[in-house]
Amino acid sequence: MAKIDSVSPLAPASFPQLVPVDGVRFATAAAGVKYKDRTDVMLALLDPGSVVAGVFTRSSTRAAPVLDCQAKIGVPSDAGAAILVNSGNANAFTGARGTDSVEAITLAVAQAAGVPQERVFTSSTGVIGEPLPHDRITDVLSTLTSNADVNGVAAAAKAIMTTDTFAKGAQAQVDVAGKPVRIVGIAKGSGMIAPDMATMLVYLFTDARIEQTGLQALVSGINERSFNCITVDSDTSTSDTLLAAATGASGVSVDGDRGFAEALEGVMLDLAHQVVRDGEGATKFVEIAVSGAASDAEAKIHAMAIANSPLIKTAIAGEDPNWGRVVMAVGKSGAKADRDRLSIRFGDVEVAKDGWRSESYSEEAAAAHMKQDHISIGVDIGIGTGQATVWTCDLTHGYISINADYRS
Amino acid sequence: MAKIDSVSPLAPASFPQLVPVDGVRFATAAAGVKYKDRTDVMLALLDPGSVVAGVFTRSSTRAAPVLDCQAKIGVPSDAGAAILVNSGNANAFTGARGTDSVEAITLAVAQAAGVPQERVFTSSTGVIGEPLPHDRITDVLSTLTSNADVNGVAAAAKAIMTTDTFAKGAQAQVDVAGKPVRIVGIAKGSGMIAPDMATMLVYLFTDARIEQTGLQALVSGINERSFNCITVDSDTSTSDTLLAAATGASGVSVDGDRGFAEALEGVMLDLAHQVVRDGEGATKFVEIAVSGAASDAEAKIHAMAIANSPLIKTAIAGEDPNWGRVVMAVGKSGAKADRDRLSIRFGDVEVAKDGWRSESYSEEAAAAHMKQDHISIGVDIGIGTGQATVWTCDLTHGYISINADYRS
């Protein structure tokens, strides 16, 4: 069966050399929550004055740590803060016992780190429905707090992995009013598809100074164009969490600064694409750009219908320029379309125009594009100005192998 | 690669011995539309006085024959009628040329069969985006009309197949006011998943006497509980068509008769299940029953989220009682749920109750149920009285093999 040990063919050549972000320190430990012989807990300690923003899954069965984070985001405080993440167990669908575990962990972190409990944010990722052995986590807290170091972010990216085949990191530096501001991010997961809802988690750190409400607005907005525009298999985790922390240590205020917003978007998009590149069984990275829809929201509905279609994803796996399936997906999406105005491109190859196969269509040229490992599908609905771009991967035998027997 | 030549392991033991229905005659021919050495056109001739009802795909990119049928359904006429179906080419996304083909075929059928053109209904199923060589069909019309026979329905079920691994037929006889009425149905397809949108097609014939509006109301209503409750992979065809014809030849009026409605529902459900049993790559037939939802409509949203989840379908393929994925699907569905009231059953095994793994849960008992080829998943949302049942199949390597390279 099941677990794939080789690194995704779409992985970046190497993990980036991430620069330290002033005001945040990291530590990791091997607590044995489930995995043996690897780190499975990471702690990030944020200096006093840091603000924290977050975006979370909308699942109605979301996990206890998600509910706890949601309650704490935006509560004003000048104290320090902490983010603790464990892999191996999602503490999801664990009833009152799950809430107790979150309480025990956040209390212990607060004491060990000397921060208020309402400033301790946790995430858990891994198997669902099993009680979290939270003692194993609280047992390593003193080690974590004493080892915390500004250079620990790469180790943190590794500690939060579950079935990821590579650690995911990205960064940016931007000058605001002539002074440098840094943004560093790490992520784990394969979109919504990681087995047993081992989930998508994202942590962003910047030394920028920014109001919490401003940071929240920024990450919520960019999240719609980055993480909410990726899909591996349409299945949504019970634990998806993004936390963004601004320590203010650079002394540079970025409220309303466009350069900072663009740099942050670059980091988030980079991480979102890395999650797709680690999609289970993925062999192709697929960009789907829809234009000419009735609105941006309708364009995204079309794009997601294409990105989630098993028939399209299997055709891409087979390197088959099967544009008829794109017509099908647009038709079923529920968003407005006019069959006779639809145009489709695979890469630079115009496949269909105004509701039929293009006069200039070359099956050979389209097939050549499908052989690449970066596939781009362009669809013009032809009825308006709405547009959206989403990213996904193909659906392969690897996906079946990984998911048909993960728990056993 | 691609085409699977062996019959689905979930196929019925044999095609049923279908009784003739008075007032309808069938003929088939090998027109060479695309396939060689097999029949690919079927004609059903309906006696004067027949009424025809229909249900069609809601795809916004639906094919020319579908649009033509929709325009003709319900137009009153005492004349005879005809249904002509070809396999091998869907005449979908073929622009004005597609409309011309429908016009040419319906005109020729009208002349050959001596019925008005607005009483000729056609369906086309197979490859999308290729012009339909309609001359090959009109060339065999005189053969078809002269061979038409009341006993031809089994041959008709075969002629409409594309990648189906078995022909699908069902029937019922019901006494109304002490007199027998017959219902016979045939179908093709593997739900919404057949490659290149080779589609789901269903034809029902009865000798009952019934108003067209009454027949339409019956099939529209039952369709919601039968064909609209199956899914193989969430992909919706551009050509899905169901036509129901009542010849009235029995002389028995069934308007408002409950026994007739139940018999019709039995035939439609039987055919719907057969379509799932021929789902591409299917090795398990899966029934998903949701209760306790806020409404019946919300129950169906939950049930379809479960039925379409790739993670659940692959777990079933792997015979893994992975109930955490059911929690995930309920959570993402968008319909109302309360995590802490959710209960889940696999077969007779209570897996989860009130938001956590059941006290009595036995992994061995659940795993034993998953080894069967008929899997039943029961979910109680615990917040209302809404219920729905849907049917699907598992997602296997066979599905990937069939769909990753169908056109090539």
UniProtKB/TrEMBL annotation, chains A, B:
Top EC class, one word: transferase
Record-listed substrate binding positions: 162, 188, 199, 280, 403, 408
Swiss-Prot/TrEMBL site (Involved in the stabilization of negative charge on the oxyanion by the formation of the oxyanion hole) positions: 125-126
SUPFAM superfamilies listed in its UniProt record: DmpA/ArgJ-like
Keyword hit for Acyltransferase: yes
Cleavage, annotated site positions: 198-199
InterPro entries, sorted: Arg_biosynth_ArgJ, ArgJ-like_dom_sf, ArgJ_beta_C
Record pathway: Amino-acid biosynthesis; L-arginine biosynthesis; L-ornithine and N-acetyl-L-glutamate from L-glutamate and N(2)-acetyl-L-ornithine (cyclic): step 1/1; Amino-acid biosynthesis; L-arginine biosynthesis; N(2)-acetyl-L-ornithine from L-glutamate: step 1/4
Cytoplasm as UniProt keyword: yes
Reaction(s) this enzyme catalyzes, per UniProt: N(2)-acetyl-L-ornithine + L-glutamate = N-acetyl-L-glutamate + L-ornithine; L-glutamate + acetyl-CoA = N-acetyl-L-glutamate + CoA + H(+)
Gene3D superfamilies for the chain: ArgJ beta chain, C-terminal domain, L-amino peptidase D-ALA esterase/amidase
GO biological process: L-arginine biosynthetic process; ornithine biosynthetic process
EC number in record: 2.3.1.35, 2.3.1.1
Molecular function in Gene Ontology: L-glutamate N-acetyltransferase activity; L-glutamate N-acetyltransferase activity, acting on acetyl-L-ornithine as donor
Domain of life: Bacteria
GO CC, any one term: cytoplasm
Enzyme active site: 199
Pfam family, one: ArgJ
Residue stretches in coiled coil: none
Keyword tags: Acyltransferase, Amino-acid biosynthesis, Arginine biosynthesis, Autocatalytic cleavage, Cytoplasm, Multifunctional enzyme, Transferase
Record-linked PANTHER family: ARGININE BIOSYNTHESIS BIFUNCTIONAL PROTEIN ARGJ, ARGININE BIOSYNTHESIS BIFUNCTIONAL PROTEIN ARGJ, MITOCHONDRIAL
Family stated for the protein in its record: Belongs to the ArgJ family.
Classification via HAMAP family: ArgJ (MF_01106)
Description of how the protein assembles with itself and partners: Heterotetramer of two alpha and two beta chains.
Function of the molecule: Catalyzes two activities which are involved in the cyclic version of arginine biosynthesis: the synthesis of N-acetylglutamate from glutamate and acetyl-CoA as the acetyl donor, and of ornithine by transacetylation between N(2)-acetylornithine and glutamate.
Protein name: Arginine biosynthesis bifunctional protein ArgJ
The organism of origin for this protein: Sulfitobacter albidus
Gene name in the database record: argJ
